[in-house]
Amino acid sequence: MITAEQIEKFIAQAHRVGDAGLTVCSSGNLSWRIGEEALVSGTGSWVPSLTKEKIAVCRVADGEVLNGVKPSMESGFHLGILRERPDVDVVLHFQSPYATAVACMKEIPRNFNVTAEVPCHVGSVIPVIPYFRPGSPELAEQVKAALKDHNSCLLRKHGQVVCGKDFDQAFERAMFFEMACRIIVLSGGRYEVLSQEEIDDLETYILGKKP
């Protein structure tokens, strides 16, 4: 059973996302797995000012709505990611200013590794998904496929998606994603990225992976 405390935690985390400028008005959506169910921000809801009346409770296994609140149009990839990734409990779709500016560039960067935080937290490779209509089955399938073995992706002319084991990890990935894109935009395209050797060095000594 979903508790009142869990609902309040979900609302607080949604407002945190909004306060950080990751979503504006009705842009973006958030989900949180709790056992066999998931809380999903509702269709048309404003994540920065989410209320309990706009939170859908869905069964993860088949997407059935359990409380009569229609979930976000992007619930297809939220629930799909949760089904594919037992290590993930939180999915965030956001549209932060600089990362969305990058998503709308004619030539999207192939490499986002401008600082160590990107490969350490966001991912050394960030899949870029072609434009599909928001809420479409095609978009849901593309996002699910991309996040099957990555933790973030960029949606062309749309926004971004990150996932994590908890709210903090998903939030951290979103914030560092936005930071990297801010560097890319403010540099006017004149930026350097970490070499593969430098990334491997991070994985060995910071992430604790053996060479």
UniProtKB/TrEMBL annotation:
GO CC terms in record: cytosol
Keyword Lyase: yes
Keyword Lyase: yes
Cross-referenced InterPro entries: Aldolase_class_II_sugar_metab, Aldolase_II/adducin_N, Aldolase_II/adducin_N_sf
Ranges where the Class II aldolase/adducin N-terminal domain occurs: 8-185
Keywords, comma-separated and alphabetical: Lyase, Metal-binding
Short name of any one Pfam family annotated for the protein: Aldolase_II
Entry-linked PANTHER family: 3-OXO-TETRONATE 4-PHOSPHATE DECARBOXYLASE-RELATED, FUCULOSE PHOSPHATE ALDOLASE
Protein name stated in the entry: Class II Aldolase and Adducin domain protein
Organism expressing this protein natively: Paraprevotella xylaniphila YIT 11841
